[in-house]
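User: My collaborator sent over this chain with a note saying "see what the structure looks like." That's all I know about it. Can you take a look?
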Amino acid sequence: MTTSVRARKRVKRVPVPRSALPPDHWSVDDVAAFAGRSKDWVYSQVAAGEIPYSKRGGLLFFDPDTVAKWLVGKPVAVSKARGQ
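Assistant: Without extra context I'll predict from the sequence alone. Here is the result:
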């Protein structure tokens, strides 16, 4: 008996220009689009305490300037959101 294993096709994500995103705050979707990565990647960065974020009403929000600096490797202060 043979079993076939279907290979998971990787989706090529293209980064979205910052000018196409909201100027004041970003959601998980916005950060993923800007970084050219998946939403799962963003959530894993949050869980690991790697990416700076804030949490309001159970939703994650990101400062665009801080995220842009973080993505290019500049040091930024990362702290957990209140209530965690």
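A starting point for your reply to your collaborator: Helices lie at 28-35, 39-47, 64-71.
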